[in-house]
């Protein structure tokens, strides 16, 4: 397990390239946030976690149970899923929007659906940010 990379994985690089091509700018692996998120979009108060289906127990075929030492693996997977849940709760309670992208969503024709989903979610975050700014300005649409 020491050779399992925690950052700059192939699915993460795909998501980063996709976001960058769509015009979004972001920070990587911000250490002061819970869970050290893969991608942080501060302008949109949004975080993107890119999870491996096997390690984080997605409901696809890649999340199989190894045949050897199943009790060890079950404890490991339960620990990973519990930690993910704690980090997500902490980030949401701190006012962040959390998006989880699964490894199986970063290949083939599913990638175009992922691009549309990210755009929709991030544009929604942008609209919410503008509404908050308008409310702070007393309903005025201008920032002047």
3D structure, described in words:
- The chain has 144 residues and is of the alpha+beta class.
- It has a single domain (10-131), classed as Endonuclease, Chain A (3-Layer(aba) Sandwich), CATH 3.40.960.10.
- The chain is 47% helix and 12% strand.
- The protein contains four helices and four strands.
- It has helices at 10-21, 53-56, 70-93, 110-136, and strands at 27-28, 39-41, 46-51, 97-102.
- The chain has a four-stranded mixed sheet with strand order 1-2-3-4, sandwiched between helices.
- It is globular.
- The N and C termini lie far apart (54 Å).
- The relative contact order is 0.15.
- The model has no long low-confidence stretch (mean pLDDT 88).
What is the secondary structure topology, with strand pairs?
Blueprint: H1 10-21, E1 27-28, E2 39-41, E3 46-51, H2 53-56, H3 70-93, E4 97-102, H4 110-136
Parallel strand pairs: 3-4
Antiparallel strand pairs: 1-2, 2-3
Strand percentage lies at 5-15%
Distance between the termini: 54 Å
Strands, total number: 4
* CATH fold assignment: Endonuclease, Chain A
- CATH H-level name... which superfamily? VSR Endonuclease
What are the secondary-structure elements, in order, as H or E? HEEEHHEH
């Amino acid at each position: 397990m020491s050779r399992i990379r925690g950052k700059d994985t192939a699915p993460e690089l795909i998501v980063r390239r996709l976001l960058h091509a769509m015009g979004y700018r972001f920070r990587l692996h911000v250490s002061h946030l819970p869970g050290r998120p893969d991608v942080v979009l501060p302008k949109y108060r949004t975080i993107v976690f890119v999870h491996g289906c096997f390690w984080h127990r997605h409901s696809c075929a890649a999340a199989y149970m190894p045949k050897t030492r199943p009790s060890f693996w079950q404890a490991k997977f339960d620990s990973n899923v519990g930690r993910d849940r704690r980090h997500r709760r902490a980030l949401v309670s701190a006012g962040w929007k959390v998006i989880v992208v699964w490894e199986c969503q970063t290949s083939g024709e599913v990638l175009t659906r992922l691009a549309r989903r990210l755009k929709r979610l991030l544009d929604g975050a942008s609209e919410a940010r503008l509404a908050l700014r308008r409310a702070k300005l007393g309903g005025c649409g201008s920032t002047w």
